[in-house]
Amino acid sequence: MAEALLSPILEQLTTIVAQQVQEEVNLVVGVKKQCDKLKSNLLDIQSVLEDADRKQVKDKAVRDWLDKLKDACYDMDDVLDEWRTAILRWKMEEAEENTHSRQKIRCSFLGSPCFCFNQVVRRRDIALKIKEVRKKVDDIAKERAKYGFDLYKTTDELQRLTTTSFVDESSVIGRDGEKRNVVSKLLAESSQEARDVDVISLVGLGGIGKTTLAQLAFNDAEVTAHFEKKIWVCVSEPFDEVKIAKAILEELEGRASDLVGLQSLLRRVSESIEGKRFLLVLDDVWTENHGQWEQLKPSLTGCARGSRILVTTRKDAVATMMGSTGHRINIKELSDEICRSIFNHVAFQERSEDERERLTDIGDKIANKCKGLPLAAKVLGGLMQSKRTREEWDRVLSSELWRLDEVDRDQVERRIFIPLLLSYYDLPSVVRRCFLYCAMFPKDYEMDKDELVKMWMAQGYLKETSGGDMELVGEQYFQVLAARSFFQDFETDEDEGMTFKMHDIVHDFAQYMTKNECLTVDVNTLGGATVETSIERVRHLSMMLPNETSFPVSIHKAKGLRSLLIDTRDPSLGAALPDLFKQLTCIRSLNLSRSQIKEIPNEVGKLIHLRHLNLAWCVELESLPETICDLCNLQSLDVTWCRSLKELPKAIGKLIKLRHLWIDSSGVAFIPKGIERITCLRTLDKFTVCGGGENESKAANLRELKNLNHIGGSLRIDKVRDIENVRDVVDALLNKKRLLCLEWNFKGVDSILVKTELPEHEGSLIEVLRPPSDLENLTIRGYGGLDLPNWMMTLTRLRMLSLGPCENVEVLPPLGRLPNLERLLLFFLKVRRLDAGFLGVEKDENEGEIARVTAFPKLKSFRIRYLEEIEEWDGIERRVGEEDANTTSIISIMPQLQYLGIRKCPLLRALPDYVLAAPLQELEIMGCPNLTNRYGEEEMGEDWQKISHIPNIYFHDI
Predict the structure, then answer these.
(1) How many whole angstroms separate alpha carbon 727 and alpha carbon 764?
(2) β-pairing verdict for 498-501 and 488-492
(3) Is the backbone of residue 306 left (phi > 0), alpha (psi -120 to 50) or beta?
């Protein structure tokens, strides 16, 4: 993690030194000399950081040294950010005043002749801070020598344990179902060509039991009888093709091989398996390098049909790379009960009944901390074998596994930490840093993926690409961590937002690795020794405070705090914010969401490093101060669901680094003028057209979006009917924005039942509002026209479509032709019938045969709401998959449909045959009496048997 801290600092130092070419710079306390010396020391330290990072797990002195280095790095980062911010503000002020000639406004540092005295003093203060930090780094660099660090070599530390195919099956508990699944796949008919081999992957967290499960299957009697040859190879890291080929050959021939060249080894392997059915287990595969696997793969062809390769890995990407699509088994955690059984089997071995009775209650609590990891249960059980007194057991329980000074350090490090450390140290340092950042959240905290990426970005963890897309880098880091099982319990909402959690043991591990940096304060630790002794060094803090708890002033001691999340409904928070902002000026990420504050104090302008500000669901928030616009580093601002907030600060255009602005469902009535200056804006979730009224002079026009070329994600254009000049739409260049979702709210949900006169230009307006052709999500609400736009059917990448309320639309376009549509919602339409035209199924004029036979090929979810005039939903004469003698086409309609929900369609008589034949997993019918009578089980509907095969069926009355 320290290495990831150093890299951006070195880049900043290089930039500053390069800028300082003017003579006057050297007058400011010799800044260039200070920066050069600092950079030299940091480079020397960086060369041994990987070795130091690994040694800190078992050497407290090294850890203390790294802690001092990280503190110095944080201080250095703050100073450099202050320096850079001062330069940025100076340039902005001069540009705004426009009082100097082009010659005087130079880009070089301190380039203005009118550089006033107080600015010089400010730069001098920053230069003195650089000098002070440099002295700290000098001392740290001198200490480096006494630890004997080396340039790190991958084979020097933390060698992966070599596994074997042998396992004591009697000691394995809770994997019977998974074992049957693996054995079944091993014995099943091959799905590949005769010369190919099916690859089966077991994927899961380190220590969860992948190797044990593979061993059970490998030694199964049926498996042994089925395969002529069985080979077990422990791969680990690095992926050595020669070593692996040699191990395979030695297993096949039963003796050591004298061959050394890769090609000769592979040739012999190929000869040894020719025409034989074999099982090869590759245990603990890490490499994602497809080229390495491709070198081995050809030698494994030529075998008999039914041969198998069984892979265990912690990485989803490895399973994909090795071609195990359709044959991937994700290994789940064991239950608490099974973990307790494993723990008790080991911990109470050869103990008296009296000891069992005396210690079982504590043992159960310890075993519960394993959270489904059998390795942790076995290790803790082994640890407790040597501990006889209740006090010793209590001490282990309170240590939460990771306090190495309270338990046997070697036992913990080698048998509990290693599964996580191996995954952790296999990550690039920048990804490690992103993972460890999650230690600031409480256990079992539901994290939001997009929010987390913004927080990583605010901390400077995401390096900007050539295209400027730090968000894409963050997404990649997230996917890496998810694939390694550092995250779990993923859930996706209807807007495709994702939440997730961390396993408790993974969380404990992250907190151990960030012992002095991340802290969670709750009702149990508030005012306790933990806060008092640790708060001064904390960098990332979550405060989960009860409503009746006053804000703790001890937090003011955390002068270097960079992240702050406050979860409280106590209204006293508002009064505490001014002093908080005065004291904690290093904050980069601030989350006050769901709090009861009514205003943000002017002191927020002192948070010059602030990049991420989350005020979502602050429903009582009435105003934002203009000083927010002084936060020239701000990257994201979220005021969604702040219903009492009516306006944004008028000088919002000064936030030139703002990338994400969320205002949907807030009381904000318009976007202020000046939005066009924020050219790096990526997210603008709602733009309200202001057609006259008191806000017209303050509101931005739609055409101000023209130069915001990076806008992507979801954009809702509200009150489109107020657009007076169609030219404004053309100038906005919406069809060239990088959008994933575009929503037009033509009238608004509140006016669903209100009939208004249709503007003459509404039909032409919707045609002009043409989105980019690669749009993925589209919502059209409140449209008053008769016909939906012609461009809708050109959106071939559309995945989600929501139509309604559109009270005048009677006929739908052939939506079934949209090739990638996965979710469809129709509500408050005047449609009376869903027929072949809706499916996009056309009949040949001459033959009368259906020529187009695939409709909604990827649709998974179909919701119909408040289509109160619909009576018929036509079926097709031939069922899904049926063939006709006169055509070779196969009718396939909604072949992937899993969910169908129909609400308040009282006239609808029946479901079509293709829906009844679809692979539905859930059917929900609400407020549809005809359908309830026809299909309902309780009323013994005449067609109940047609839907009874669906696993989940729900009927509701409204």
Answers:
(1) 12
(2) antiparallel
(3) left
Is pLDDT of 885 > 70? no
Highest mean pLDDT among 461-475, 753-767, 774-788, 861-875: 861-875
pLDDT digits (tens, 9 = 90+) for 672-728: 999 999 999 999 988 888 766 777 788 888 888 888 888 887 788 887 767 777 677
A 10 A CB-CB count for 820 gives 14
Name the token pair of 591: 């989350």
Confidence (pLDDT) at 149: 74
Summarised one tens digit per residue, pLDDT across range 799-854 is 999 998 888 899 999 999 999 999 999 999 999 999 888 998 765 555 445 555 68
Contacts of 242 (CB under 8 A, 6+ apart): 260, 261, 262, 265
pLDDT of 194 > 80? The answer is no
Question: Interior CA angle at 91 toward 89 and 96, to 5°?
Answer: 95
| Cβ neighbour number for residue 459 with a 10 Å cutoff | 20
Closest CA to 660 of 634, 693, 642: 634
User: In whole angstroms, what is the distance from residue 234 CA to residue 238 CA?
Assistant: 11
Query: Per-residue DSSP letters for 352-420?
Result: -HHHHHHHHHHHHHHHHTTTT-HHHHHHHHHHHTT--SHHHHHHHHHHTTT-TTTS-HHHHIIIIIHHH
Parallel, antiparallel, or unpaired for β 872-873 and 922-926? Answer: unpaired
Determine whether 112 is exposed, middle or buried from the number of CB atoms within 10 Å of its CB (0-12, 13-18, 19+).
middle
- What span, in angstroms and rounded, lies between the C-alpha atoms of 657 and 457? 12
Cα 206 to Cα 649: distance, rounded to the nearest angstrom: 50
Tokens, residue 848: 């009368």
Alpha helix stretches (DSSP H) within 461-503: 470-483
Rounded Cα–Cα distance for residues 882 and 860 (Å): 21
Q: Is the peptide bond before 805 cis (omega within 30 degrees of 0)?
A: yes
Per-residue burial over 404-419, b if 16 or more Cβ lie within 10 Å, else e, is beebeeebbeebbbbb
Contact 830, 869 (CB under 8 A): yes
pLDDT in tens, 114-155: 445 556 666 677 778 878 888 888 888 888 777 777 665 433
SS3 82: helix
Give the DSSP letter of residue 811: S
The pLDDT of residue 22 = 41
State residue 637 phi and psi, 5-degree precision: -135, 125
Helix then strand then coil, in percent of the chain rounded to 5, is: 40, 15, 45
> What is the SS3 assignment for 874?
coil
CA neighbours closer than 13 Å in the CB half-sphere of residue 668: 31
Decide if 118 contacts 89 (C-beta within 8 A). Answer: no
| Six token digits for residue 766 | 């919707």
Q: For residue 523, name the pLDDT band (cuts at 50, 70, 90).
A: low
CB 826 within 8 A of CB 864: yes
DSSP 934: H
d(Cα 88, Cα 126) in Å, to the nearest integer? 15
Q: pLDDT tens digits, residue range 271-319? A: 888 888 899 999 888 888 888 888 888 888 878 888 899 999 888 888 8
Section 538-557 average pLDDT: 83
Pairing state between β 800-803 and 823-827 = parallel
Q: Is the pLDDT of residue 21 over 50?
A: no
Six-digit token pair at 529?
């020794």
Q: Are 245 and 299 in contact (CB under 8 A)?
A: yes
Tell me the domains of the chain and their CATH numbers: 2-147 (no CATH), 169-330 (3.40.50.300), 336-418 (no CATH), 429-511 (1.10.10.10), 521-752 (3.80.10.10)
Q: Give the Cα separation of 210 and 201 in Å (integer).
A: 10
**What single-letter DSSP state applies at residue 815?**
G
Question: For residue 238, is the peptide bond before it cis, meaning its omega torsion is within 30 degrees of 0?
Answer: yes
